[in-house]
User: What shape does this take?
Amino acid sequence: MHIEEYIAARVKELCEKYHVSKYRLAQLTGMSQTAVGNIMKMESIPTIPTLEKICDAFGITLAQFFAGEGRRPDLSKEQREIIETWDELGRDERRILIQFVRSLKNK
Assistant: This one.
């Protein structure tokens, strides 16, 4: 797979996962809908700063963008376990866990 194919597929995958339309992604990144569409249709390859804007819109890093779904680069086994557990929690459970972790930090 060529890089433009990978990037287009990954952006589409992230849009589907996070229920973000092309219009909304353009708003979140400050890009035009045409520019976002060109990336998704493989008519242009984004620069690194543009990819960073896209990653910021989805709350991921460039490393996570290129690692793909389900892979978490540069994390220890324990960190991956925490994140995998987090992914399985509901919204209320996540809120409680965040409060607990913050309370540990303040001790």
